[in-house]
Structures are given as structure tokens and as C-alpha cells.
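Below sits our specimen:

——
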Amino acid sequence: MRLRLSLLPILVLGFVGVAYPTNALATTSPGVVVAWDDDEDDSDTNFGDDFDDSFFSDENEEEKIERFEDADTPEEEGPEDDENWEDTSETPVDGDFFEDEEGDAEDVEIGGPGEDTADIYRKFLNNMEDLGPDEEIISWEQYLQKYPNSLFRAKIEARIDDISDEQFSERLTRNEGGLVDAGQAELEFTTPLLLESIDPRTKLRAGFEWGYPAYINLLLDYEKQLQRDLSVHGGIRNRYTGWNAEAGVRYAFIKSARMQALVTGIFDIHLNTNPVFLGVRPQLGIGKRFGDSLDAQAIFGPDFELGSPVGIRWLGGANLTYHTADIVSFFAEFSSQMKHLGWDEASNGPFRFNVVTFGLKIAPKEHSISTIAASVPASYAYWGYHFGSIMGDMNYYMD
């Protein structure tokens, strides 16, 4: 490289000497030296040495490349330049604005249709405090319909799931120690006194009624639960038509601990002893528990006396029981039996015997309930049953 650079001025001067005579060069530019001697060779050599060929060296080239790369690289690269970077800082979007010291929420800008803000969410949340589980679920669903792109959608859906689990998937402990879903749990609904039981359960029932002046009724009945909503029973009791041997089936079309409701069909066959006849007694019972304290039920149906002709009696009534504590309840009951016999003097119009009963239920043990009550006729046209009675019975549950 050094050799090529030393020959460069010689070639240039040689080209000029060919193109122009020596004298011309001497006259046009007196400062130009044209003489060729050994001293001028040294000057040529020095001319070549004036170039810093280290600029073209490999070491300098690497240094220039390094400076070039540094010039294109930012001094500090922000974390947001990394495509895998995530902001892990805490934000109030998850509802943390409720926990700030001053209690003020920071509004979140609405980013598009169907979005809410933190302030909207907080105000709506405050209105949920006085609502029951059903109303709260409905309200949150309406909120999501209005704000489908809510910033708090995940939090709201989790809240709805929690309420649903508490209301519909609650686990209750049964007496035998097992766990069942709340919808399948026993209602432990009130057993009425003069009406038919509408809650299919396994139980033994024994009772009495003594009416003035000369009416005695004894009752003994055993009911066996075949399924949660199906049972059969059999027993004896003295009804107003005489002593009866009875057997039948009870099936609850609706038996829901979630709704606290019962709808039960009853079909009994009974043999009356005095006078002797066979009877069929289909009835329909409806029951509802309000809150944790009040049981309400009603029952109605015909009692067919099979014979020639077929006699029909109408049976029915209602019961209200108020539970004041775990072991004490008060109840009022109305029961009716009527049969149309004609309107002549001998029959004294249609037969009816409608009774109002008041009483007290006590549950001294987990499986048993005892009842003490008194009744008076409210409306009657009858052959002489009683003008008032006292009653008592005991139900021992074995489910």
C-alpha cells in the first residue's frame, strides 16, 4: 500500500510532462519543480508517509463499526419497548379504590360503548346492601346488560356465582350425619291435627280427642317414606262417620327446600265400621313456609262413600303454625266436613261440622313433636258429636 501511494505523484507528473513541454511548465508555474533527482525521490517518499494509513487498518475499522452500532442504540431502553413486558403495578380497576384512605374513587375513563366507570360501579354496589339474594342477582344481570364491557365484569360474575352457590348449592347436615343438597333436604313441615299430613316422611303418630258430651277419638298411624317425595301409610281412627281402618299413599308433586314449598296428592282407601261402607278419599294439599317462622297449608278434597247411590262428603281446611323457637310453636287450624242430605226437616239441612282449633307444639327431642290443643265448633248442623274438645298427639319421626 505504501509503494502504490509513493508512485502516485510520479505518475501524475509524468502525465503532465508528456502533455506539456518542460519549458512551459517552468514558465507557467515557477513554483513547480520539474527536475528529477534523488532528493526529490525522498520528498515523494515523505508525501506518501503524510497519509495515515492506520485509518484503513482492521483495528480502526472495528472501532468505527462499534461506534456506528452505539450511535443507533438508545442510551436507555424503556420496559415498554419489550413486547413481552407487562405492567405489574397495582391499579384500582379491581375494586381497590374502596380501600383508599380517603374513601374516594378514581373515575376510569370510558373507553367505548358499554363500558362503565369506577364511580358508576361503586354507586351501584352501594345500592345492593339492602337487597336479598334473588334481587341482587337480577340487579347485577341488568347491570351487565347495560354495561356489557364493564371494567368489573369478572368481579361481578364472581359475585353472582357466590350468591348462587350460597342460595342454591348450600350443603345441609341431616340427622343421620350425611350431607345432602339443600334442594333435597327435608322441610320438617308442620303436621296438622285434624287434617291430613302433606309432607311424606317416615313417622309414627298416636293421638286422642275427647269431646263433650260423649265423643272419643283415638288415632294410631304409621307412615313409611319410600322416596323423598313418596310415602305410604296405614292406621285406625274414629271419624265423625265412625271407626275407620285406613291405608293410602302420599306423593309430593313439589317438595322443595329451596322454595320451601309442598304440593302433595293424597289417595286413601278406608273401611268404615258403623255403618259399614268402603270409601275413597282423594285430596290435594298445598304448603308454604314463609321465612323461618311461619308454616301455612291448606287441603281440600271429596270423600266418596261407595254404595248405591254413591255418597259424597267434602273435606278441607287450613293450618297456620308460628315457630317462636326451636322447640315451641303455636298454631291455629280450621277443619270442615260437609255432606248434602237435602233440605227437609228430618235431615235438618246439609250436614256440616266445621271446627276451629288452637294449640301448642313442643319438640323436646330432635325426632319427636308433641301437641296439646282445644277445639270448638264454628259452624255446624250435625247429629250430636261434641260442643268442644281437647286433643293431644305425638309424632315420632324416624327419617
